[in-house]
Each structure stands twice: as C-alpha cells, then as structure tokens.
Amino acid sequence: MAPRRGLPSARALRSVSRVEPTVQPLTVLQPQEVLFAEGARELPVLSACEHYAGAERFLRKALELQQQLGGTFDVTVDCEDGARAGAEREQIELAVALLHDPLNRHDRLGVRIHGFHDAVWRQDVDLLLAGAARRVAYLTLPKVTCAAQVETMAAHIRSGCARYAEGRILPLHVLIETQGALREVWQIAALPAVEVLDFGLMDFVSDHQGAIPEAAMRSPDQFEHRLVARAKAEVAAAALAHGVVPAHNVTLALKDSAQTRADAARAQREFGFQRMWSIYPTQIEAILAGMAPDFSRLPRALALLARAQDAGWGPVAFEGQLQDRGTYREAWRLVRQARARALPLGAEAERRFFGA
Which residues of the chain fall short of a pLDDT of 70? Predict the structure, then answer.
C-alpha cells in the first residue's frame, strides 16, 4: 500500500532509524540546547486546531472526538459568550466538572473566561483555580484593550496558582480583537505567561464601526482588506518574534470543509499562523489538514540533524549544499511536530534528540 500523501514511507523512516554516528563529539548536545539563543523563547508545538463550544453536550462530543483523533486538537470551554446571562457560575462549574471527567484523558481542555471589563472575570478565575488549577490546559483572556489589562489578569491568575497549584505557570491565550489590543500587541506578546495570541476577526471588524465592511469577516476579503490583512500580519509577527503561537479566527461557513481547509492553508502560508479556531465538528479535520506540515520531508530532517549533531552543530555539507543552524532549526521544528502527532521517528532518533 502506498504511503499517504505528505507522510514519509515506513521504509524511509526505517532507513533513518538505522543511521549511526560516524564521529561523535565528546559531549553530545541535543537540538534544544544549542539551536536557540540564550533567553529566546522556542515556539511551542501546539495542536493546529482549537475547538470552541459552550453547551455541555457539544463539549462532551468534542472530547469524545478528541479521543478518537488521538488528542490532535484542543478543546476550549467558552465561559464568556457561551455562558447564559445570569448563569456564569454554573458555566464555570461545568468547566471544572469536565476538567475532572474521564473524557479529559489528554489534558488538553482550556477555558475562556470573561473579559477585563466584566467584573465576573475574577469569579471565573477563583472558582476555576479552586476546582481544577492543575488540570486546566490554558486560560483564554478576551476583550482586552491594552497590555496593562493582561498584566492585571495574569497577576490574579498567578496568585490563584500559587494558592492552588504550587505556583504553576498557567499558559495564557490572549484574544487580539480590539484596536487597542492591536496597538499594544508587541507588549502583550512579550508578557511571560502568554503562549498564544488569538486573532478575533468578528469583534475586530465591528470595533471599526462600519469602516471595515461586514464582508471582511469571510473569505476572500478577510485576507485582502487592507486593515484586516495588516492586523493579521501584525499579530502573527508579534507572536512569532516572542516565541508565541499565533492563532487564526474561525471560518463562518460552518459546514463547508473545503472553505475551512482553504482558509487554514492561506492563514498559514501567507500570514504565518500556526493554529486556528473551530466552532463546528467538521471544521476540525479540515483545519488539521490545511495546516499540516509536509511530513514527507521528515526522513531528510532526521538525517540532517544526525549529521549536524555528529559535527557538534557546526556547518556541514549535506546533499551538496551548505547547512547551518538556520536550516537545523527548521528541521528540528518538523521533527517536534511529527513527534507531537505520534509519527514514528525511530529508536536512534529518539535516543539522539530526546534521550529516550
């Protein structure tokens, strides 16, 4: 049977796994020890898809699908827009219950709380951390208009984690969906606990009070309107410069998988987004496919890293071309992405690069 398109063949992977070092340096350094400058934040390898839901039955279906797909996408409990007015406490209690539910076997369940200007956000944080500080994967902070608001919220979250989770640093995902947040996006991306910058297209368009047409909430205008394209580029640039993952907005065509896949691919190819929101189950696999790396390059990446490691991570000639740490970093990210998707790397690669 021929290998799936984009995936390396089993024979190719076996050939890489048999690669043995020819000249080993006295101290064998692993990629993460040498490929990034001191103090630099290495870009996390997260799922390319984050699925949002607010109703319990949809959340449970999403967690069941997450199990079926091997944990290849994240699920977020929406306690902001997904909470009924007056039922904010009940929505947080639902999130806590799901975090402890056996369905959360992959521990990739996050929570979106209320925004800074809604006083209930502190209650959200307090109840959530008191009930599940060690299980929540991340918190999403919406509707911020400046970096100072993120810092205030982050300080309260740190305090809760110190009390309930022995000082755990809880990853924060910050929604950039206002003009004010966009103006300070570089300061927001630099904050220590920030892991993801999410671009919120619909609120961003509405924040312009008619200056951006409603058509810019959908393709192709969402990629071509000057103000929207500028905002997406700025969010992605700020995120990537600080080792933070940029996440793209949803596709409004809920049942059009082809459009969702095309949006995901364009967001990644033209703007550098590494992740995208889903709000309908059929969008999940479309996003994963649209943002999937070309894993047919995995055997080459493993072989290049093995050669580089044998040379102490200095420049090498490989396949007739000069290679250095710039190309090593690209190969290393592909390897990490493959491992995150449970693709086989081979015993030699596991030993060399992960000490397994």
Answer: 1-27
* pTM attached to this predicted model: 0.88
Instruction: Walk me through the domains of the chain, giving residue ranges and CATH numbers.
Output: 10-39+294-354 (no CATH), 49-290 (3.20.20.60)
For residue 141, the model assigns a pLDDT of 99
Any idea what DSSP says for residue 196? Answer: E
Cα separation, 228 vs 238, whole angstroms: 15
Residue 170 in contact with residue 194, Cβ under 8 Å? no
Residues 177-214: tens digit of each pLDDT: 999 999 999 999 999 999 999 999 999 999 999 999 99
- The token pair at 294 is 């070309």
CA distances from 304 to 24, 337, 348 (A): 15, 16, 13
Contact 245, 273 (CB under 8 A): no
Distance from C-alpha of 123 to C-alpha of 103, rounded to nearest angstrom? 25
* Chain length of the chain: 356
Nearest to 116 by CA among 85, 80, 160: 80
Instruction: Give me the DSSP letters along 157-188.
Output: HHHHHHHHSTT----EEEEE-SHHHHHTHHHH
DSSP code per residue over 191-221: STTEEEEEE-HHHHHHTTTTSS-GGGGSTTH
